Amino acid sequence: MNGNLLLRIAVAIILLTHSVFGMFNNGINDFGNLYLNQIGFAPFGVALAWSIKLSHVIAAVLLLLNKYIKLAGFVTILILVMGIILIHFQEGWFVVGGGRNGMEYNFLLIVVLLAIMCPNGIKKDKA
Fold it and tell me: DSSP letter string over 61-102?
C-alpha cells in the first residue's frame, strides 16, 4: 500500500464523517440556517450547506475510487479555503489547545489534498 493511497483513504474518512453525521443530526440544516443565512447567504444557506456536504461525500468516493482526483481536490480545497476565510481565520490558528476552531485543520487538509493531486510534485515545462 503506497502513501498516496493511505492519504486518499484518510481524507475520504475525514470528509465522510464530517458530512454524514450532519445529515442525520440536523447539523447541516443548522449550519445553513444559523450561520450561512445569518452572514448573508439567505435564503440559500441551507441549500449551500447541503451542497458543501454532498460535495464532500462525492469527493470522498472519488478519492477512494482514484477517479477525478484533481477535480475532487480542487472543489474540496475551494470549500476549505472559504471555510478558513468565513469561519476559522477569525478564531486563529489552533483547533484546540492554543485556541478553538482555528484554521490549522483546514490548512493540513489543503496540503494533503495538494499532495494527493500532485503525487510526483509540480513539474515545470522545459522551455
Answer: HHHHHT-SHHHHHHHHHHHHHHHIIIIIGGG-S-SSSSSSS-
